[in-house]
Amino acid sequence: MTIDEVGILISEAEMTDFLNQQAEKDNNAYFLAFVGDEIAGILHLTADYHYRVRHIAELFIAVSEDYQGYGIGTILLEDALEWVEEVGTIKRLELTVQARNKKASHLYEKFDFELENVKKWGARDENGQLIDVCEYVLFFD
Q1: Three-class SS of residue 112?
Q2: Which element (helix H / strand E) includes 134?
Q3: For the chain, what percent of residues have pLDDT higher than 70?
Q4: Is the pTM of this model over 0.85?
Q5: What is the structure's pLDDT at 113?
Q6: Is 23 helix (H, G, I), strand (E, B) or coil?
Q7: How far is residue 125's CA from residue 132's CA, in Å, rounded to a whole number?
Q8: Which InterPro entries match (predicted)?
Q9: Torsion angle, CA of 95/4/24/37, rounded to 10 degrees?
Q10: What is the pLDDT of residue 105?
Q11: DSSP code per residue over 40-107
């Protein structure tokens, strides 16, 4: 059994069906980086199915602390951006990052993401302190 984002138990078969459905969409994708048998990083692109907004995707990326600094985030982003260009459905790619995460911001800027907005007190840190969140965007013709 597996727990989804709201804590509902689902079976492995249901999770497999969900992932297979996601894989068939032209505006959603998952990328995994492995070191041996261990997942070192993940990148997820997700977009709505409604016609008027299906060209807008949200990017989520995470690299395990043990593997940060080895270029895994760069490889994941390269692969994802290549996929976006090949498929052609996504025209606006958005992501958010805590303003204090300078390494991640540098990575996104290296790939020509533009800082679109800084959301003051957009999140809380692990100690409950309010922190700013940067909103980045990348456009595709």
Answers
A1: coil
A2: strand 130-139
A3: 88
A4: no
A5: 99
A6: helix
A7: 10
A8: Acyl_CoA_acyltransferase (IPR016181), GNAT_dom (IPR000182), MshD_Acetyltransferase (IPR050276)
A9: 80
A10: 97
A11: EEEEEEEE-SSTTTTTEEEEEEEE-GGGTTSSHHHHHHHHHHHHHHHH----EEEEEEETT-HHHHHH
CA-to-CA distance for 78 and 82, rounded, in angstroms?
A: 6
Number of residues that this document lists for the chain? 141
- Rounded distance, CA 71 to CA 103, Å? 12
Both structure tokens of 35: 């070191």
User: CA–CA distance from 125 to each of 27, 108, 117 (Å)?
Assistant: 31, 21, 19
Computed on alpha carbons and rounded to an integer, the radius of gyration of the chain in Å comes to 16
Determine what percent of the chain falls in helix, strand and coil, rounding each to the nearest 5.
Answer: 30, 40, 30
Indicate if the pLDDT at residue 18 is higher than 60: yes
